[in-house]
Design a protein that fits this description.
Elements (H helix, E strand, L loop, with lengths): L2 E7 L8 E6 L2 E6 L6 H15 L10 E4 L3 E5 L8
Antiparallel strand pairs: 1-2, 1-5, 2-3, 4-5
Length: 82
């Protein structure tokens, strides 16, 4: 199943707030743009992960749901091979 988890990383003394997106062993971290909505910033991280790793995923079809630390983005339909 293709899914991407995102989570908020709070600011530290050295870095500003960030969003980390992960899928399998892949990840990307993007700055948190406080001028944008929370979901928008998390979706930007999703797009960043897909671009960084050259995935052929049409993220415009993804749906999402909230978790305690961020979001999970996945496709609304998946196929299971028997």
């Amino acid at each position: 199943m293709k899914s991407i988890k995102t989570k908020y990383l709070p600011a530290t003394n050295r870095r500003g707030s960030r969003i980390k997106a992960t899928a399998g062993g892949m990840s990307v971290t993007v700055p948190y743009d406080h001028s944008k909505s929370d979901v928008y910033v998390h979706f930007e991280a999703v797009k960043g992960l897909v671009e960084k790793h050259g995935l052929a995923w049409d993220v415009s079809r993804m749906v999402y749901g909230g978790t305690e630390r961020g979001y999970v983005f996945c496709f609304p339909q998946s196929t299971v091979e028997a």
